[in-house]
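Exercise: predict the fold of this chain.
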Amino acid sequence: MFRVVIPARFASTRLPGKALLMIGGKPMIQWVHERARGAAPREVIIATDDSRIAAAAAAFGAEVAMTATTHLSGTDRIAEVARQRGWGDADVVVNVQADEPLIPSALISQVARMLEEDPRAQLTTLATGISSVQEFLDPNVVKVVTDARGRALYFSRAPVPWDRDAAAAAPAQAGFAGALRHIGLYGYRVAALRRLTSLPSSPLEACERLEQLRALENGLPIEVGRASEPPGPDVNTAEDLQRVARLMGP
């Protein structure tokens, strides 16, 4: 049985306090918590360093773990929770982002199941097909390329794989068949989580601003599954918030 940790911070460059912004009468973090509970994990923990988020989470009955203010990533915050709780190396924990109020519960279960069904797997994530040239070229959409077994070869904000011939024939790349969008949902075996967070930031991670590249640069394989259903949009800007609110209805 797996656990879910939702790392949540108040500070956000583009949308401060977004975890507590209201959607349909509930703070966003509550919608994420409900999606996580829908995956039927052993427990769901909201990990934060902010008393406002802790108070809001407690108000809707969530379990809260207070963590250090010095963490640079949600992964570091989850690793602290694993240390606090004394979780074993083989235990499975899923990292659900606090800005994913529409994340399907089935995808949370899926990344956990990939670890539970393969004892060799250490870190899992998901991807889905890219549906437009605009999405393919958008640097805010992270792309992933995998090997024949489904292990990640590389993650990038750049449009990969790049079709050389199609690009040469048009002002902008027109072909994106087979390109995959990475979904920012991770399953970890706790031993791999501890190893990852003990490593310094890597050159590729610093360049692309993608933490998962630290794992690849240090030889920690990432299994990439095809998402069993399309993910909903996450929330990074005020426009995203409005779009999600419309999708969720009155």
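Check your answer against the key: Residues 3-233 form a domain with the Spore Coat Polysaccharide Biosynthesis Protein SpsA; Chain A fold (CATH 3.90.550.10).
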